[in-house]
Every structure is written in structure tokens, then in C-alpha cells.
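Cross-posted from the bioinformatics board.
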Amino acid sequence: MGWTGQVLRVNLTKGTCTPEALNKDWAGQYLGQRGLGSKYLVEETDPKVDPLSPDNKMIFATGPLTGTCASTGGRYSVITKGPLTGAIACSNSGGYWGAELKFAGWDMIILEGKADKPVYLCIIDGKAELLDASEIWGKSVWDMDAWIKSRHQDPMMHVSGIGIAGENGVLYSCIINDLHRAAGRSGVGAVMGSKNLKAIAVRGTGGVKVDDFPAFLAATSAAKEVLAGNAVTGEGLPAFGTQVLMNVINEAGALPTRNTREVQFEGAHDISAEAMAKPSGKDGKPNLLANQACFSCTIACGRISKINEEHYTVRNKPEYWHASGGLEYEAAWALGAATGVSDLDALTYANFICNEQGIDPISFGATLGAAMEMYEDGALTDKDTGGLKLNFGSAEALTQATELTGKAEGFGKELGMGSKKLCDKYGKPELSMTVKGQEFPAYDPRGIQGMGLTYATSNRGACHLRSYTVSSEILGIPEKTDPLVTDGKAGLVKAFQDATAAVDSAGLCIFTTFAWTLEDIAPQIDGALAGEWSVDRLLEIGERVWNLERQYNLQAGFTAKDDTLPKRLLKDAAKTGPAKGLVAGLDKMLPEYYAVRGWTEDGVPTNETLSRLAL
Amino acid sequence: MKITLKLYATLGAFLPPGAARNAIQLDVADGATIADVLARQSVPREACHLILVNGVFSPPASAHARELVDGDTLAVWPPVAGG
């Protein structure tokens, strides 16, 4: 129970859709979603596969709580080998699509091969078929969504798919569902595009059975009370969203600014949650119109925003005057602080384009920041950029570059390579703020030391969502640690990594963990699934998933040398704020991290560790 | 002595007239504590979940004991999180 027991295998080369039974043994060892999808990928593909070749597979996987009434139980993940990094990619999304897939009777979709012409996968309950997508190839996510719902005369369908960026191989293109929820990182959209697969449209009319309904209902009800009674999940996140962090992280001196040259941004307030809530424009309405929840979520942190109709970006484009997905913290940082742009409407417009064309705003903004530094240093010229004046702080440069990248036109094609390849091409590899090829997000490791270790060891390249030590180091959740020291961070990062891997495998949102611990989550899983599901079992699964991903990357060719940070963070001290004079102390944390992980000094899991985790 | 007070999110409503960008410079008595400054602006203590002095965490429970010095920046938030 918790599972439908059905996996849909789609061979795009042959054009076949074949049901098969879910491997319950693996589900017992890897739980679901991130863990179980990764297990399937590891078993079915060569880690050295070209990510954009037909031999790469991509897996859309739900968790056991996806589609249930557990709070936030609507998540799904896309697991594949990422083209931005060459590492395992696992991108997680909310919205309603994941739950709808379960309602249609499917736990997971495995996509293999490549279609000979653009197609979309249409799933209506137990019926799955590949349909011609030639009319929507070249269309935006938003137009595609409307076209599919119109064609099937069903506004209740949920669509997950790619925009023009994914079609054109932008290496950080994402997969968007429900118009503005994204499986955002590592370029999973480019893999989808390489397979000539535009979208997966789903309509389901069933439900999800659980193993012990009274116990499940009691556990999920109790857990919802915890979320509602917690000041952060019950009040803070619904009211201010993640964007309230902008001023927090800036005050703490950990806001990477202008390609991480500085750690504080003078324009932070202008692009913050406080600015989004301030009335503006001729109608007197603020940028932020409302909050929004994903399926079954009782937190509702999502932002719904509107661009000032008089702003230069949309003055003559009424098609952008509607309300849509607004700025979350990471996007606002990347489009704003990383580029030095403090024009809130320009950021919101760029964010709309990212959603419309399927671009990861974190990687895009960080890549643009690197390009701006190269432009100001003279490594990039007007001839290179096609006339784009890529000065830090230029809102026009931001919005033009976003449009070009979405369409993969002009200099947008080069920006679409990501900052590592771009900086390599123009002879400035040191200016790429990446780990394993992926741009890092909105926390400077000089001011939050645990995030340096988090980025360096993340299995999908630099990422905050693999181990959000900001919670402890800045916010004091679950307990306060000092962000400026390295002591104790190895154990802290491992603990966050393992717990997060378990949550990501359950079908739940990681934001619940601002209030929940695994003590709140285990009873919900135990009620949904057969067998005994304890906190210890979940932690063991989390550690198993982490080591499985590590093994995949090692076999793909990564080594301990890739567990590092850009030299700027290791050599150039922060110039202002509490971290003034500090660099990222990775060298002090990494050996201890390998030890607490049960890995060799070269970062390889020992036989004893692998045996203990049944790997 | 002069300090800068920054009140964010819903706490911004407790800033006095003249505040801009959620901040204002105040004259306070030498030796004033965090609690003194917050009480002066009628900020409910139970609403103060995150307190930074010059960007460094200061435990809310110790607000009555933590004395500020000339030039300090006191920034306060209600319950917040993100990521």
C-alpha cells in the first residue's frame, strides 16, 4: 500500500508504453522517489553514458506519500544523468502533477530511447500513449499547457514538460509542471528535449490506498498540527515565503553578490519580500498578490506575483500582465544579487520568462553574473555578446539575456552552456562559481561555513537542497550552530544530507522539516506502507541513497578532486560583514567528512560502509 | 549613543515615522539592551524570533541582558525560513 504497484516503461524509440510491476524489494531498501528512482537508474544505465544520448534514461518517480493527504504529499522527482554536470541528477517538484500520476495508477515512469519526431506522453488513468507534438514543438510551457488541455477538452489535466530552452539543449533547462512549479536543477529539461519528448500530460481519477488507514490518518493529522502550530511553517512561510531570507542573509554577510565578488548587496532590500509586499504601480497593488499551496500542502509558501504594467519589460506586452509564479528567494538572489540588479519588476519578468521557457533561474542568473564579470574585465567584448552591454546592475541586460537564453538565440546560446563551459571558453575558468559544473545558490560559504562543505560534496553539483545547514547556522533550526566556524560541520552536513535524502524519497517537501523531524515523518510512512518504518530505518535509507549516488558519480568519473570550491571562496576573504577576513574552510572540514561518512581519504566508500548499507 | 534599528516582515509596522527601507537610526541611552530598544518601539517580544546584532546571531532569550554599543545595527525578524 502507498503504492499502486505499477511502473510505466516508455520506449520512445519503439513508441511503446508497457506496464510492469514496481520492484517492491527495492522500495523496501530505497523508500521511493529520489532513492528508488536512483536505484532504477543505477541498475539500468551506464554511469558513463552521454546524458543527451538515447542511451540515457529519465525517470519520473513519486514517493509512497505522493497523492495522499499527508501534508505536502504531492512531490515527484526526475532522475537521470545530468547534462550540466555529468553527475546523477535528481530534481524535485511540487504542484499537482505528481499526485495526478498516482491517481492515474502509476508510481513511476521510465523513459528510454529517443522519439524520431516530437511527441508527448498522454496518460489518462490506465491508458498511456505517445501522441504527435509537432504543433507544440517550439511553443512555450504556458502555450503547451493550454494546447494540451484544449485538445483533450480537460482543464483538470496536469502537464509536466519543457519550453523552448529544453528543446534547444540549454544545459540548465528545467521541467515545468502546473505552469510554474519546476524540477529545476541540473538540466533535466535538456534530457527531455534530447528525447524529442515535449510533455507528459496526466489525468487520474483514482486514489492512493494506505496500509493502515486509522493509523495513517492519526499520524498525518498530528503532523499537520505540528506544522500549523510551528511559528515558521504556520506563520512565517505562508506570509513571507522564502524571499524573507534576502535581508536575513544580507545582514549575515553571506549573500553572494556580483558573481560572488562581495558578500553583501546594497540593493538587497529592493528585491526582498518586504519590497514585494509594498504597493507599487498605478493600480496601487504590490508585486505579491497571494500565496499558493501545492497539492495537499498546509504551509503554502508559493508566491503569486504581477509585474507593474508600466514597467519597460511589459509596457507593450499585455500577455505578461497576468498573475503568475513570483520570485522565490533563490531565483531573486540569482537574477538580482548575482547580477547586481535591484529592479524588482525586471527580476519578476525574468522569472516569468524562466518559467515560460523552462530555465533554471539559479544557474541562469549565476551564469549571467559570471558573464558580466568577464565583460567588465574585458574577456568578453561587445562582438562576443552581439552588442549586449553586460554591465553589472543593468536590468536591461538581465531581461534581454533571459529572453535570448530562453530562445537559445544570439549570445543566449552561449549563456545556455552554463558558467563553467562559458568561463572555460573565454579563458576565465576561475570566474565560474560552480561545483561539479553546477552553479551554487544563494549562500556564501565564507559566511556560512557548513554550506561550503554542502556544495563541495553535493552529489548533483552545488546545491542548497541537499543539506540545508542554513537552517541550523543562521535560523537556529533545530538548534543553533555558529556559521563562522568549521568545527562540527562535517557531522552536521552528513546528518542533514541523510535526513534530506529520506524526506526526498518519501513524496514530501523538505520545507516541512523546519517543523518536523523524522519522528513526525516515520509514523506517516508507517501508516501508509506495510512493514515497520522507524526513524532509524529512514536514516539508514537516507545514508544508503547518499552512498548510491556517490557510487554512481565515482563510476561516472568523478573523484575527490571534484569535492572542492571555486578558488575565489578558498583564497579571497570576505570583505565585509561578520565573515570579514574569512575564507571557506573546506580543507578543515572535508577530511573529517570523509571519515564520518565511512569513506577513504580519497572519498571512496569503504567496503565496510558499502556492506553495512547493503550496497 | 546612536544605533540602527531594522525591523523586518510584519515587525516593520513597529518602526517609527521616518524609517526607510525597514531601518531607522535611533538615539538610545548608553548601555541600552536589545530588550530596551524593542520595548521602546512596543515590539512584542514573543514575535522576535531572529535577532542579529551587526549580522551576528543573538539569542532572543538573552535580549534583556545583551547591551548594545554605539554604532550597532540591531535587526529583528518574526518567524522566518526559506531555501
